[in-house]
Write a structure and sequence with these properties.
alpha/beta; 39% helix; Double Stranded RNA Binding Domain; 5-stranded mixed beta sheet; single chain
Amino acid sequence: MLLKILPSSCVLMIALLLSACGYHLRGALDLPSEMKSIYIEGASAPLAEQFKKALASSSVQVVSSRAAAGTIITISNEDSLKNAASLGASGRANQYNLEYRLNYEITDVNNVQLVKSQPITIRRDYFNDQQLILGKDNEEIVIRNEMYQQAVRTMINQVRAALKVK
């Protein structure tokens, strides 16, 4: 009898300890109630997709109209750049600099500005091995997705901070 109770009590004890220490699933965000519905205006498709992925595990809904939103994020001047940082003997690029820039502003449903227009600039470098062309194309896609993710995390953190002050 004791052997049947012991495993289930251990599982219960571990669950209680994890919840008491603030453990949450990776990617899940603890967001204020004002952020339960967000409208994203002016974002490119990859950035909007990263917003949806980041907010999906936090039961936040990305809505399709301003009227249905509690928080509105307006994106402007979004731009991606790719420059050759160094050239090899054959004249082909050995290293690239990637840059992702945008401006964003955050308002609430009453058009009260929570975060004034702010820029985000994210830079990454990667080595371009001419022997592995296909792999390097995939590497660039992965790096760009990480840049979008970083921009989303920055904006969400700004919203959380602004709503705490409010």
